[in-house]
Design a protein that fits this description.
Elements (H helix, E strand, L loop, with lengths): L1 H24 L16 E13 L2 E11 L18 H12 L7 H9 L7 H19 L8 E9 L10 E10 L4 E10 L3 H13 L7 E4 L3 H10 L4 E4 L1 H10 L3 H13 L6 H15 L4 H8 L2 H4 L10 H4 L3 H16 L6 H16 L11 H6 L3 E2 L2 E2 L2 H8 L1
Parallel strand pairs: 3-6, 6-7
Antiparallel strand pairs: 1-2, 3-4, 4-5, 8-9
């Protein structure tokens, strides 16, 4: 049955190519020109047999040749140099995303796609080169039309095969006013420094990205320093997951279970005042037992409670940097499993491609209907929008 389907698809595409040439020349095969002013061009046999890989297998096609045309004939059904369909091309990064190593593609897919499938090492290297070119184009695209409300940022160290310079991959994901999440930046930098983050922010501004409302990230000082210089008026929210882990690391193991329960209730308090009351309780309980843990909790506290200034429906997304870490967890798992990268540039382009595949599965933000108001500058207290009179009093 598989062979039967492939043969019929092959005949259909071959007939489609013949029909294209007939439409171009205005006459069928072997028919003579009917007038002096008829369409120019003559059939000139066929080119070499070419294999075309579809998700249903690999077929063999002979492209008709045409001579004496004013312009080169390019088929819409089978463009020049096309060896696989768009779906097959999209299949490869998806398989990599799910853990298939580049060296295993041929073994895994040869039986499915056929012996003529373009799955050799050379073809996969060409695919990586194509991704690199696509990534360079993606980095230059204009962002003027994007209305970004929140941005999640984080840096990741991919240990598998990268150079000894210990480069980090700096990633930014934003959410638009329609609730859709998009990847905004994927760049390599040195240890999440202020200079590296500053370069990314300047690039986003240069390409037309308008200021957003809030940035969510962990405790790396490089990003906050860069934001303070370039976007001093933007709200900033630190990740509660990272802060809780840092606090527990400074506590005796015997106290960690009890302390974790109290710490985890803080970001779920209904109001900022209730959250600060829980912080006071933690301070009173552990000031003598774990003074360093208390110091870590209270350090930069203002950035931990920023989410209370935004709609309550958005709090689950604003408390942590999981929006970035969730899709990147799969990337880290795959790149740690085997050494697949020798250069930072190759790793960056390939991981960008994986994130592009993952982007299509991103879930819309909860409470998406409130995002336009937040983008327009609506003010909130403990998750509830302030009335115009309240805003005027605060402004006064």
């Amino acid at each position: 049955m598989e062979e039967f389907v492939r043969e019929h698809v092959q005949r259909f595409i071959q007939a489609l190519l013949e029909e294209e040439v007939a439409e171009l020349l205005g006459r069928t095969k072997s028919a003579r020109r009917q007038a002096v002013d008829a369409e120019p061009g003559y059939r000139n046999g066929y080119g070499k047999s070419r294999r075309l890989t579809l998700t249903s297998g690999t077929i063999t096609i002979r492209r008709p040749r045409v001579r004496d045309l004013n312009e080169r004939f390019v088929s819409r059904a089978l463009p020049l140099f096309k060896r696989q369909t768009k779906e097959v091309g999209e299949l490869l990064p998806q398989l990599y995303l799910h853990g298939l190593a580049l060296g295993d593609f041929e073994l895994a897919l040869r039986g499915l796609l056929g012996d003529g499938a373009p799955l050799s090492s050379a073809s996969l290297l060409r695919l990586k080169t194509q991704w690199q070119a696509e990534y360079e184009t993606w980095k230059q695209r204009r962002l003027d039309d994007l209305e970004v409300v929140y941005i999640w940022a984080d840096g990741f160290y991919v240990k598998a095969g990268l150079e000894d310079t210990k480069a980090a991959l700096l990633v930014m994901i934003g959410v638009l006013t329609d609730g859709q999440k998009v990847v905004l930046a994927v760049e390599s930098g040195q240890r999440e420094s202020k200079e590296s983050w500053g370069m990314i922010l300047r690039n986003l501004r240069k390409r037309g990205l308008n200021p957003w409302r809030c940035t969510i990230a962990d405790g790396h000082l490089g990003l906050w320093a860069a934001l303070g210089e370039q976007y001093p008026t933007l709200a900033e929210q630190r990740c509660w997951n990272h802060r809780i882990s840092n606090v527990l690391d400074a506590m005796p193991k015997k106290q960690q279970a009890e302390a974790r329960s109290l710490l985890c209730t803080m970001p779920y308090a209904e109001t900022q005042a209730a959250c600060e009351a829980l912080r006071a309780e933690f301070t009173a309980r552990y000031r003598k037992l774990a003074p360093k843990a208390v110091e870590r909790l209270t350090d930069d506290w203002e950035r931990l409670v920023t989410f209370y200034q935004f709609p309550r429906e958005h709090w689950p997304h604003l408390r942590t940097s999981n929006v970035v870490e969730s899709p990147f967890a799969t990337v880290r798992l795959r790149t740690t499993a085997a050494k697949r990268f020798k250069k930072v540039e190759n790793a960056t382009a390939l991981i960008w491609k994986i994130l592009q595949v993952a982007e299509s599965t991103f879930r819309r933000l909860k409470g998406a209907e409130l995002l336009p108001a937040v983008y327009a500058g609506a003010q909130y207290t403990d998750g509830v929008q302030r009335s115009p009179s309240q805003q005027q009093k605060i402004a006064a």
